[in-house]
């Protein structure tokens, strides 16, 4: 009687392990699919950005920035300080 109970319990545990393994593999498959979708989306966006950068007239951008700085010196200085501060935070060494 005790052997039968132990065997039944062992079979139940094996079934639970198999069910868990199957659920995990299904979940992993969904995660892989989602990662693949995100990777493809990032690749597509990078390609669009690369095309846009290739089509940009950089002399026009330079002229527009120069004119903006000349017309708005205070705002330009504030923007430069903000960008410099943000870059400083990002690039500082972390002594953990």
Q: How is this structure best described in words?
A:
The chain folds into two domains: 1-56; 57-96, no CATH class. It has helices at 2-55, 58-71, 73-91. The chain is mostly helical and 96 residues long. The chain has three helices and no strands.
Task: Show the helix and strand layout.
Elements: H1 2-55, H2 58-71, H3 73-91
Helix pairs in contact: 2-3
Total beta strand runs: 0
Radius of gyration: 29 Å
Largest sheet geometry: none
Q: Count of DSSP helices? A: 3
Query: Roughly what is the average pLDDT, rounded to an integer?
Result: 85
Supply the number of structural domains.
Answer: 2
Shape: elongated
Structural class: mainly alpha
Low-confidence stretches: none
Please give a quick description of this structure:
The protein has helices at residues 2-55, 58-71, 73-91.
Entry keywords:
3 helices; single chain; mainly alpha
